[in-house]
Amino acid sequence: MVSYDAELAERFQRLLAGVENVTSKRMMGGVCFFLNGNMVGGADRSKAGERRFMFRVGKENEAHATALTGGEPVVHGGRRLGGFYFVDADRNSGETVEDWAALAVSHARGLPPK
């Protein structure tokens, strides 16, 4: 995550409305959201200025994630991070982003609380 975008962080937070035990933390240049201490995802701007969401859907949900539209695997330092996807926030909205958020929340709920 490269740059904090307050409006984008608010959009992400609205995706999690009604989900209990959600916290947020500014980190990696953006803001990340956690459910029971486990990362759900975050929001930032890339070095190129693209507004994007990042969702942690888990490696076991890769097949489901690749079936969703609008996402691309996160690559950091030339290495693909399994179970993490970027979704362009300006090209995707509504149901598409809600589907990504639901998959990420489902994954986080399946993890033991931290």
UniProtKB/TrEMBL annotation:
Give residue ranges for domain TfoX N-terminal: 15-108
* Pfam families registered for this protein in UniProt: TfoX_N
Superkingdom assignment: Bacteria
Q: What is this protein called?
A: TfoX N-terminal domain-containing protein
